[in-house]
Specification:
Nucleotidyltransferase, domain 5, 43% helix, alpha/beta, 18 helices, 6-stranded mixed β-sheet
């Protein structure tokens, strides 16, 4: 069974072709992206239709997908849909849901809607599946989803949704396996088909830190999210690469009046000039900020400290909510490859049972492993992100369930 995973960003298109089962990567590629452009890479993607055509041509030239008959499904890591979540067929209802919330996720929803339409035109008869980033959070307690806003706002859709769901779901499953809890791993694998099912044994409490160009922290009990740092949109929570993160709502009317800025310009600055870029004044890339901080740049140092402070705030919140923690997990680009940030997040937390092993931590970059000290009550794990695999697996399950 061949499953193509399509990942459409605001300026990029990436793909990965899997063959099941077991899952094997047959091909991968892509184009665009602001970071790649800044580093001298590909031009940004502006024509997603052409990017998709190029993807299919590349797979055909490699002999992987000679015709639509060689492809059994296409999975999309969709972000946010109005009135729709979970893992569902990517049909007209999904396109309408994406368009209904395009103001909240303007960098992602229009490209995904366009991508789904293009694939349906190019591959008629091939099942298309959308796995929403919000899916992992659909079982959070209602209190964890609500803002203290007028009821009419809530009915219009103003609530905490949560994002990076595919990444945190993978962490929930893989951390359970690493901790010897096959029952929890099985629960996570079947989550989108059966919902949470009862488990035996003590609760498994995990705090998952997805740290990258955008970052989020999620509390997980027995494989199910109980809360997350991101809210109504991917702009909230921790400071992002160039997005402001959490901000007092009074700041928007204040700067509009004080600086004479129209709303559209305020939105642009919050989503393009804020975050680590706004704090550091150097870059939105943590590698550049680290280098500047090492040379004594005070703003770069402050950016690292603010990022650390925010992450520790959310780690602490979920440690409290879960009544303890069995595993603290780092994933995504920063989480997997930056020992200094991991050490900063864990510093001085011995009274919470979190003690990092400096040697293990320094040695681990981009690979899976444990970095906690021998006497640490909490296991500190590094698990490389594998969102595409999650999307591919769920696409297979959705297609199979539709056939029953």
């Amino acid at each position: 069974m061949n499953i193509l995973v399509a990942n459409l960003g605001s300026t990029s298109f990436k793909f990965r072709l899997f063959r099941f089962d077991p899952a094997t990567t047959l091909g991968a590629g892509g184009a665009g992206g602001a970071t790649m452009l800044a580093k001298g890479g590909y031009e940004r993607v502006t024509d997603y239709g052409q990017a998709i055509d190029d993807c299919l041509a590349e797979l055909k030239a490699a002999g992987h997908v000679r015709s639509a008959a060689d492809l059994h499904g296409v999975g999309f890591k969709t972000v946010l849909g109005k009135g729709v979540t979970g893992c569902v067929p990517a049909d007209d209802r999904v396109i309408a849901a994406l368009e209904g919330f395009k103001e909240i996720a303007p960098a992602h929803n229009p490209p995904y809607a366009a991508g789904i339409k293009r694939f349906s035109e190019k591959l008629p008869g091939v099942p298309l599946v959308a796995l929403f980033e919000t899916a992992f959070y659909q079982w959070m307690p209602e209190a964890a989803t609500r803002y203290a806003v007028p009821e009419a706002w809530y009915q219009a859709g103003v609530r905490r949704f949560g994002f990076h769901g595919a990444s945190h779901k993978f962490i929930a499953e893989r951390s359970a396996e690493m901790l010897g809890r096959a029952d929890i791993a099985d629960r996570v694998r079947g989550l989108y088909q059966s919902g949470p099912v009862p488990t035996q044994g003590p609760a498994l409490r995990v705090v998952s830190c997805h740290l990258g160009g955008s970052s989020s922290v999620t509390g997980i009990r027995d494989g199910v999210a109980v809360g997350t740092s991101m809210g109504l949109s991917p702009q909230s929570g921790l400071p992002q690469n160039n997005r402001v993160g959490d901000l007092d709502s009074a700041a928007v009317p204040f700067v509009m009046k004080t600086l004479g800025l129209p709303l559209a310009e305020v939105e642009r600055q919050m989503t393009k000039e804020g975050g680590l870029l706004g704090l550091s004044g150097v870059s939105n890339d943590l590698r550049d900020i680290n280098a500047a901080a090492a040379q004594g740049n005070a703003r770069a140092k402050l950016a690292l400290e603010v990022f650390t402070h925010s992450a520790r705030h959310w780690i602490g919140a979920f440690h409290f909510e879960l009544n303890g923690c069995d595993a603290l997990v780092f994933t995504a680009g920063i989480g997997e490859n930056n020992p200094d940030m991991r050490a900063a997040f864990c510093a001085g937390l011995d009274q919470l049972g979190i003690v990092i092993d400096p040697a293990k931590n320094a040695a681990l970059r981009g690979t899976e492993g444990e970095i906690s000290a021998a006497h640490s009550r909490v296991k500190i794990l590094v698990i490389p992100a594998n969102e595409e695999l999650v999307v591919a697996r769920e696409t297979v399950r959705c297609i199979q369930s539709q056939k029953k």
